[in-house]
Design a protein that fits this description.
The complex is a heterodimer of chains A (666) and B (128). Chain A is mainly α and 666 residues long. Chain A is built from 21 helices and two strands. Chain A is globular. Chain A starts with 14 loop residues before the first helix and ends with a helix. Chain B has two domains: 58 residues; 33 residues. The chains are: A mainly alpha (666), B mainly alpha (128). Chains A and B meet through helix 6, helix 7, helix 8 and helix 10 of A and helix 3 of B.
Amino acid sequence: MLGKLDWSAIPFDQPIPLVAGGVVLVAILAVLIWVVVKGHLPYLWHEWITSVDHKRIGVMYILLASVMLLRGGSDAIMMRIQQAVAYQSQGYLPPEHYNQIFSAHGTIMIFFVAMPFVIGLMNLVVPLQLGVRDVAFPTLNSVGFWLTATGALLVNLSLVIGEFARTGWLAFPPLSELSYSPGVGVDYYAWSLQISGVGTLVAGINLVTTVLKLRTRGMNYLRMPMFCWTTLASNLLIVAAFPILTATLAMLLLDRYFGFHFFTNEAGGNVMMFMNLIWAWGHPEVYILVLPAFGIFSEVVSTFSGKALFGYRSMVLATMAICVISFMVWLHHFFTMGAGPDVNAIFGIASMIIAVPTGVKIYNWLFTMYGGRIRFATPMLWAVGFMVTFIIGGLTGVLVAVPPADFMLHNSMFLVAHFHNVIIGGVLFGAFAGFEYWFPKAFGFRLDERWGKLAFWFTFLGFYVTFLPLYIAGMLGMTRRLQHYDVAAWRPWMFMAAFGMLILSIGVICQIMQLVVSIRNREALRDRTGDPWDGRSLEWATSSPPPVFNFAFNPDVRGEDAYWDMKSRARQQSLEHDEPEYQDIEMPRNSPTGFVCAFFATIMGFALIWHIWWMVILGGLGAWATFVVFAWRDHDEYVIPAAEVAAIDRVNLEERRSLVSMAGIV
Amino acid sequence: MSDQTHLPGHDLAPGEEEQHSVGERVLGYVVGLGLALLLTATSFFIAGTDLVWQPSIPVALIVLAIAQMGVHLVFFLHITTGPDNTNNVLALAFGLLVVFLVVGGTVWIMSHLNANMPPMDQIMPKPM
């Protein structure tokens, strides 16, 4: 009846996950009860859960990423403490638990923190920057988000029901095959990635189509803001690379469920094929994450330097070059697997070449700042911090791209330090910069600068104190994923890294404090004009938060830096005093399709993990039926009358006029 | 790159492609289906026949397979050379490039897997 599921799945003998799971469960229940008692449930359902508004979906993506960042962060804290204490002892985490923690940490941070964070920012900002009313497929957008949430839910469920994979974040066979991982851990891993992978693919298709097909009047390709270009490149990579991940995991699942022999040791399976395929996805993946971050930094650096982006066209070229070359370097993740000098040399050279367009970008940002009137607001701090940190990460990256050096450093702590250096210094700093920069656009008030700067400095400093020691430990020969060790020379560095983790945690607390303080002071921090940073692209041309239709009328773009151009013209010709002719606007109706689909997908995923076949069929049928019902809908749009559009838009126009006229005096 | 202007009401958003008459569309699909069936049947016929020079059969099959892809692209996926189809053609080119890189790279990598292994007779002890 219930497949492999019985009471032994609940880890009663392991206090840490049980208590952690219990606390989270109580917290979720408390929030739910509060929501129901206060009567917020209809609001949540109508305005958020069923929303197909790209801004709302973007915010929900970022919320999911933030919550999962806390989860993945606690895993990191536990690992750093374990390695600090586990010198010639077992520490406080038994090996099977420690292995689950580092596997969950990697899986969560990449798939459920970095991915939803950047996809959320792209969702929120790209339609606004393109001057359009929504993404190409609004309901599909909602489906994509909820399927990602399903994946995150399944990963968290593994904490209290069953176990998570002990295989590392990419579940390499033969360890992940049934003979070595007979439990449900790898199944949790694989199914949550399969389901959230569909969500990511859907989001990728949606954003590619949006950038290619939906742009406002005059917004041709070479007038798009840099963030739209990096979004295009990143989502092209999603569409091209994620099917590889899906196919590879599907083969692993066939091995596990039906006794196939794709990656087994016996019967002609080849484990190296898994490494090959998973990295053919895995390397583009890191560019999927970091390209949008590059876009964010381009916007931030240009805005806070008060200058157009230096070398815009070279930036576009560099972005598209990275997009293509990222598919030519994947072997550098397994130089040591036995390929000869021909193969290793070619992929090593390709890996060094891909550093060139990235270097072009760094110089472009520096030249944008050169001679600019720089304002060191919090987003700009993150951007400058990124440039410094990312150069170190990039240089160590070029070092490990040299095959002989990689033979020494492969699977060492040096490598761990390197990829944290580029992912934290690149993606996470970028996500935080984007968060600070676009928060006023999403919610209508700015974030508290004092707490923001504190958060930046603690995170920045904490990052170096945590990860520079790991470079050194790697040089001293320490390999990754050690549950305990006997080498005295490593210990001081592990202590230092644990201390760095403490500083990083203070940074996280500052971020939370910043949010709390800002919400409390929101009236004082209110952004009435919709343009708090003296911005340059179209998202600042509408109010904060933007109305559901984004723009009362489609902006007319006449060059790069569209909104900057409009502001300059308005100052000269006071065009903003004309009342535009408002028209009715058609918007897509909200739809529970995404939520219902994900509900059934969750049931199906859970049942697949535990081999509860009748429930698999039920979940699958439910998800399919939801899709059919949506496909047969009659009409899914409603009209906002011109009078209402005018009423909403006039308020913002008034504020904006006073801003322009004030600037005009000077 | 063409100056793509997107006036509301003039541009085609996804899912709003120009509607041809039903008869025209059906005809397109029927022709496509016919060609696809013809190519499939020919492939099966060629594979088992002794009418042609034997070593040419694999080459013939590859040619037929590529023709089959062409039929699918033109009649079912509607890839044309028209100006409104630039995105589709570029997407196809990008897809082909990625498939070529991943498949070609995989074949190359997997065939070099054991390049650093000494020959078998040097690792195995010589049989007595």
